[in-house]
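F.,

This is the one I mentioned.
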């Protein structure tokens, strides 16, 4: 275990990490554990342990995993996950669960899979990112105390007043998809988190991301949309167009984005680029 470090984000989903921390201390008292006070703190921890650690275990949600991934991407270091977030989209899609014994077995076995990631104007995303309605919800959600209930409340309120965004694809082959949309998602894996499958056919190891273009639908359709999303049936939805791409260049009428669920501002024009097989994940 000397070459393994556990990076815990205490701000992920209501301190979900505490039982994990206790169990880890019991099983492996000598484990290297860092309780991260900030994203920069995590960066510094990884840098200062670079020579002695080759498996970095992110304990948190997609935001935490993404900060660890930023440092180890395109290197031979390995990412492992103990899911302790609220949505846990990426960890579900990479088969990590909240069973510490299973995680320790995987660490011992050291099987690795290399997966794709992508960037949006140079910023890393590992799972699903998006703009439009989605980006606006992420922005408003940050102002609340978070949680699933607040997410639904904010989504409904935002939906009622939301005007579609305008997307103009600069890339010649994508020009025909330009138009007005409720949202654009960029999906490396199939789900946002909480088993909400926005792109049921996406694969994290095919060198592509799915552009998910969603047209505005009437409010009465929202429960149908949600039902299809949670049962992996959105593929043939009348309001959605899926476009698998290696890269895309577009102009867009909003700066509100979320990257793996974290709100961020991104100025138009926007360039999306897949980084094929750029992240080693423990299997
Ligand atoms: N390494 C880190 N150290 C400290 N804080 C972090 C770190 N990485 C991200 N954060 C902050 O912690 C907050 C929660 O992170 P995270 O996304 O992991 O949990 P979550 O939102 O509960 O889970 P999920 O993304 O699965 O819904 C984020 O708002 C993020 O800004």
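My design for it:
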């Amino acid at each position: 275990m000397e070459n393994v470090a556990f990076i815990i984000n205490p701000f992920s989903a209501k301190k979900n990490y505490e039982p994990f921390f206790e169990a880890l201390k019991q099983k492996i008292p000598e484990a290297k554990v860092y309780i991260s006070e900030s994203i920069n703190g995590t960066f510094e921890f990884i840098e200062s342990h670079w020579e002695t650690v080759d498996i970095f275990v992110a304990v948190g949600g997609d935001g935490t995993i993404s900060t660890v991934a930023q440092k180890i991407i395109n290197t031979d270091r390995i990412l492992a996950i103990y899911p302790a977030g609220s949505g846990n989209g990426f960890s579900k899609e990479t088969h990590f669960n909240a069973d510490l014994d299973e995680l320790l077995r995987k660490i011992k076995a050291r099987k690795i899979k290399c997966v794709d990631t992508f960037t949006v104007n140079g910023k890393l995303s590992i799972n699903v990112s998006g703009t439009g309605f989605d980006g606006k919800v992420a922005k408003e959600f940050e102002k609340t105390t978070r949680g699933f209930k607040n997410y639904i409340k904010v989504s409904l309120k935002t939906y009622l007043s939301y005007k579609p965004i305008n997307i103009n694809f600069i890339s010649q082959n994508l020009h025909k998809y330009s138009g007005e949309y409720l949202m654009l998602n960029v999906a490396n894996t199939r789900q946002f988190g909480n088993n909400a499958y926005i792109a049921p056919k996406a694969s994290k190891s095919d060198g592509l991301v799915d552009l998910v273009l969603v047209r505005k639908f009437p409010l009465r359709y929202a429960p149908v949309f949600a039902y299809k999303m949670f049962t992996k049936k959105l593929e043939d939805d009348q309001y959605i167009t899926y476009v698998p791409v290696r890269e895309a260049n577009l102009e867009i009428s909003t700066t509100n984005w979320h990257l793996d669920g974290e709100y961020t501002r991104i100025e138009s024009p926007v360039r999306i680029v897949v980084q094929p097989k750029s992240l080693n994940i423990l299997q």
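DSSP finds eight helices and 16 strands in the chain.

Talk soon.
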